[in-house]
Design brief:
By secondary structure, the protein is α/β, with parallel strands linked by helices. The protein has a domain at 3-174: Carbamate kinase, CATH 3.40.1160.10. It has helices spanning 16-31, 46-57, 63-70, 72-87, 97-100, 119-126, 153-163, 197-205, 213-222, 275-285, 316-330, 357-367, 391-401, and strands at 3-8, 35-40, 92-95, 102-104, 113-116, 130-134, 137-139, 145-147, 168-173, 194-196, 226-230, 238-241, 254-258, 261-270, 293-299, 304-312, 334-338, 341-347, 374-378, 381-387. It has an eight-stranded mixed beta sheet with strand order 3-6-2-1-9-11-12-10, with helices on both faces. A four-stranded antiparallel beta sheet has the order 13-18-20-19, with helices on both faces. The chain has a four-stranded antiparallel beta sheet with strand order 15-16-14-17, with helices on one face. Strand 15 (293-299) and strand 16 form a beta hairpin. Helix 1 (16-31) crosses helix 4, helix 8 packs antiparallel against helix 9 (213-222) and helix 10 runs antiparallel to helix 11 (316-330). It binds adenosine-5'-diphosphate, aspartic acid and magnesium ion (MG). Aspartic acid is lined by residues 9-10, 41-42, 47, 73, 135-136, 150-153. Adenosine-5'-diphosphate is lined by residues 9-12, 41, 151, 173-175, 178-179, 181-184, 208-210, 254.
Length: 409
């Protein structure tokens, strides 16, 4: 007998029939003797619908109120699932974040889970009930409802799994695993049997929305055994784990692209200590997450340098006003915003020990007249900023170049 946490995403609970289907899956596990905790998202389309309502009230809705409203989507689906389970003869209880003890910081719309007081969940589990926890939402120290950012229900599931020391956390979604690229756009993408936490973390942070990146951080930190599977089939999924045999042979495990970023270049800043600290300090104060950064000193003689960075497209207006204050303080020569970029990334732990990935990537883009605006690397990934119009074909071209359609593990 194990403790299992399952998470069902929006499509999996997208209609009353699908919720009944989820209930049957959960019951099958329960009847095998497992203790079950289930996290669910809002029914598909519901979060967008709610956000649309908010936009009708204000261009920039108050974020506390936004969380108050958008968190209701998950409350509907937990209650519906509990009703379905009960009507099928099983003891179940739904819990919102406050009842489940999920505490976050106060950054509305992108809150981070800080601790989980899981006693209530555990108490109900001990009574033999199936516990259903609302995904995506948390509560801050003042009792305000927060949300974890789009796709955040994955993080709820993994964090709960870590807190109650579950034996396994299964993420059920509308694809049957993690693929070498988004299977919706790359038709010959291959399903991976395994992927490491580090690779998945990079892919998720760089646009593969199949997993919320924070969920992988939790899984890695607490060593949660994670599997991504389909709620519509019994196909084997993808295991996300620390390491597996032969992982170094997989030079590139996945390719992804992120289309919801914007870029700003600040040209002709004073070339002296403290400038970067000032620029990024102001972005941090405004709670804007900066992603890729490049800095180039033109020449020592000129005494100036340029800083370019990317940040979430959704923060465009906020970033413009932050940069306006920087402009007043530092008088740069020029500021250029670009809201039409994409970040394309190739990721693989095998890159550590294999050469030629970067040169191959640049050659493919060059040959196809795709201009590279920025480059960023880590030990296991290479990212480039390009024009958004070329994002999808870049992913397809790179997928082909790295022969990911024939990847074997
Ligand atoms: P859920 O609502 O279940 O959380 P999401 O829509 O958040 O589902 O995530 C699943 C989607 O992620 C898939 O439908 C797929 O289009 C997309 N996706 C992006 N990259 C990948 C990838 N590398 N492997 C699998 N799916 C991916
Ligand atoms: N319902 C939220 C969203 O649509 C959270 C989630 O689905 O994970 O982003
Ligand atoms: Mg999701």
């Amino acid at each position: 007998m194990s403790i299992i946490v399952q998470k069902y995403g929006g499509t999996s609970v997208g209609s009353p029939d699908r919720i009944k289907n989820v209930a049957k899956r959960v019951i099958a596990y329960k009847e095998k003797g497992h203790e079950m905790v289930v996290t669910v998202s809002a029914m598909s389309g519901e979060t967008d619908r709610l956000l649309g309502l908010a936009k009708q009230m204000s261009d920039e809705p108050d974020e506390r109120e936004l969380d108050m409203m958008v968190s209701t989507g998950e409350q509907v689906s937990i209650a519906l699932l509990a009703m379905a389970l009960k009507s099928m003869g099983h003891e179940a209880i739904s819990m919102n974040s406050s009842q489940a003890g999920i505490y976050t910081d106060s950054s509305h719309t992108k809150a981070k889970i800080e601790k989980i007081h899981s006693e209530k969940i555990e108490k109900e589990l001990k009574k033999g009930k199936i516990v259903i926890v609302a995904g995506f939402q948390g509560i801050d120290e003042n009792g305000n409802i927060t949300t974890l950012g789009r796709g955040g229900s994955d993080t709820t599931a993994v964090a709960v799994a870590a807190a109650i020391k579950a034996d396994k956390c299964e993420i059920y979604t509308d694809v049957d695993g993690i693929y070498t690229a988004d299977p919706r756009f790359v038709k010959n993408a291959q399903k991976l049997k395994y992927i490491t936490y580090d690779e998945m973390l990079e892919l998720a942070a760089l646009g593969a929305k199949v997993m919320h990146s924070r969920s992988i951080e939790f899984a890695k930190k607490y060593n949660v055994a994670l599997e991504v599977r389909s709620s519509f089939s019994d196909a084997e999924g993808t295991i996300i784990l620390k390491e597996y045999e032969g992982m170094e042979k997989v030079v590139v495990a996945g390719i992804t692209c992120k289309k919801d970023e914007a870029k700003v270049s600040i040209v002709g800043l004073p070339d002296k200590p403290g400038i970067a600290a000032l620029v990024f300090g102001k972005m941090a104060e405004a709670n804007i997450n900066v992603n890729m950064i490049t800095q180039s000193s033109l020449s020592q003689k000129s005494g100036t340098n340029n800083i370019s960075f990317t940040f979430p497209l959704g923060d465009f207006k906020k970033a413009q006003s932050v940069i306006e204050t920087i402009k007043k303080e530092l008088s740069p020569e020029e500021i250029v915003f670009d809201d039409h970029i994409a970040i394309v990334s190739v990721v693989g732990v095998g890159m550590k020990t294999n050469v030629g990935v970067a040169s191959g990537l640049f050659a493919v883009l060059g040959k196809n007249a795709i201009n590279i605006q920025m480059i960023g690397t880590s030990e296991i990934k290479i990212s480039v900023v390009i024009d958004k119009n070329r994002a999808d074909d870049s992913v397809a071209l790179l997928h082909e170049h790295f022969k990911l359609d024939k990847l074997s593990q």
